[in-house]
């Protein structure tokens, strides 16, 4: 199977690319910013924009499947463009990375609403599909450490089954490799639950022992800073963390959680592996 990875320069695409390569899939990588220096192995690379049909059509030529791993402002519109190109190219499988909290009841949040719409488009496209709904990733913890300080935006009280991106990638490969998983949506959780502050404290203890305290910065302060500095990225982050302060990941059965296999990496195993890589 030849797979087009859309959003190949993103945080979650790298492990999927590596695991798919190891499993013997032929890959073509698509993104505005992807370049060979990002990868150890050599891959076929296409630079392009998901909103431009003239970029998508040649990228999909001779591909059997498309894996969508993007996070853009108008994700529903981007997915619509991708699906139109996929139908024209005769694509036989489409997969999409969504999120654990994406549901009808959470559509009041614009970002979730767009992902929900994108999911529905994929499900009703007429093309066999896979939808992955992962929870929070361990890899996102590094973004909460800046200039020798660790900070959780807002008061995040909900526990999550924190997940290693390698475990996520392994389950993507398993779903691609067996047609019995096609036309399904799968929650992807890790083996342990932590609140955001709890896991960030563990991360600092392992990787930044000089940081003795994890702060919880009120969202009101962050909103004010974003407004004063006109920082759009910070403005979106405050909205996102405000959302997660109100919603929880869905409670699911072990049967649902392990449909694509059990996760192998708890926090200790994950942090040991990344420290060896550094």
CATH-defined topology of the domain at 2-135 and 164-188 and 249-264: Rossmann fold
Report the strand count.
12
What is the CATH first-level class name of the domain at 2-135 and 164-188 and 249-264?
Alpha Beta
CATH architecture of the domain at 2-135 and 164-188 and 249-264: 3-Layer(aba) Sandwich
Instruction: Calculate the mean pLDDT score and round it.
Output: 94
Q: Note the beta-strand portion.
A: 15-25%
Topology order in helix (H) and strand (E) letters: EHEEHEHEHEEEEHEEHEHHHH
CATH superfamily of the domain at 2-135 and 164-188 and 249-264: NAD(P)-binding Rossmann-like Domain
Structural class: alpha/beta
Uncertain regions spanning at least 5 consecutive residues: none
* Strands in their spatial order, largest beta sheet: 3-2-1-4-5-6-10
The assembly state of the depicted protein chains is single chain
Radius of gyration: 19 Å
Question: What is the distance, rounded to the nearest whole angstrom, between the alpha carbons of the first and last residues?
Answer: 33 Å
Main beta sheet: strand number and arrangement?
7 strands, parallel
Q: What's the helical proportion of residues?
A: 25-40%
Overall 3D form: globular
Per DSSP, the total helix count is 10
